[in-house]
Design brief:
mainly alpha; transferase activity; magnesium; sugar transport
Length: about 100
């Protein structure tokens, strides 16, 4: 069973990975505006790696709950979920915007 502190640390991990992905996605959009598509594509790949890491952390919590373990969810965990979901939405929007610049 994970302690509240451990769950909080997973939440911070999700926030950090999601924040890094968000920054890379926005920079990728700027590179697309400048027609620097090699840099843009590299940043998108890096953002995807960050999102995969965030998803792995999220899955860790989901797996605990699915096994029936009691998980004490705090505000940081909710904040982490919010960060991840808005970054995933941003990824979809940035993808469509980049296609406009192509």
């Amino acid at each position: 069973m994970m302690t509240k502190e451990e769950i909080t640390m997973v939440g911070f991990e999700i926030v950090a990975y999601s924040g890094e992905a968000r920054s890379k996605l926005l920079l990728a959009l700027e590179k697309a505006k400048e027609q620097h598509f090699d840099e843009c594509n590299s940043l998108i790949e890096q953002a995807n790696d960050c999102l995969n890491d965030a998803h792995k952390a999220q899955t860790e919590l989901l797996s605990l709950e699915a096994r029936g373990e009691e998980i004490e969810i705090g505000f940081i965990t909710v904040h982490a979920q919010d960060h991840l979901m808005t970054t995933l939405l941003l990824k979809d929007i940035v993808f469509h915007l980049i296609n406009i610049y192509h």
